[in-house]
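If you are new to this repository, start here. Below is one unmodified record pulled from the training split, so you can see the exact layout before writing a loader.
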Amino acid sequence: MAGTDTSVPITLAPGPAIILCEPQLGENIGTAARAMANFGLWDLRLVRPRDGWPNEKAVAAASKADHVLEKVRVFETLEEAIADLKLVYATTARSRDMQKEVLGPEEASINMAQHISAGQGAGLLFGRERWGLLNDEVAMSDAIVTLPVEPAFASLNIAQAVLLMAYEWRRHGGAGKALPFSEGLDEAAPREELAGLFQHLEGVLDNSGFFTTPDKRPSMVNNLRTALTRGRFTSQEIRTLRGVISSIDRRHERPNPNRQKPATEKPPTE
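And here is the target side for that same chain:
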């Protein structure tokens, strides 16, 4: 989906921190930053990124999510990365042998929205590309968040996982109540204009002999009116339809340039 409006200022609204534990590829950091920016998140924290920070590959993959990359903070330990947070969820696709509440993305997002609206910090932990989070990292979280993925193919790319959770957060945060654009649709035409369309169409069909069985005419008319009513046509659309009907009705009054002329007979040869 393309369509970024650069005239709209970026607002750094309160939201959960995204913590990537030992990310290996700069490209994954960049695409995670882009996913965050798509849904209004900006607090990206890295724990011991393998290739260090800053990372040129991350910048290229972020597709101009510069406001996220500029605020990246790097930590040596996970404890330092989450020290200021009151609520921390660990994302994983694998069952862990520990007594942890397991939440779906929607419930987790609702909890975080309530927590953050109360002025408290929250964060989501994401693990390494190859094996995810370690058990001792999951143990530091308040609960586990998992997605309803296909068990036989449950592994997600980091950016995919971040995107899904950021989307769920946006849905349940204040900024996600309205779509970025939904206006611009004209109102449906008044009923009198729709009735005029019915009369026009039915009159032309009567004249053309469309209703070959008189006793079936009422049900056929009702079917036509039902279909046309469902269209919720605007006034302009009704004018266009009536123009089409009139054009078809007058087709016999004008020459058809595409009609093939009959061949001229040649005089018989002696």
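Two things worth knowing about this chain: The chain is about 40% helix and 10% strand. The two ends are 76 Å apart (CA to CA).
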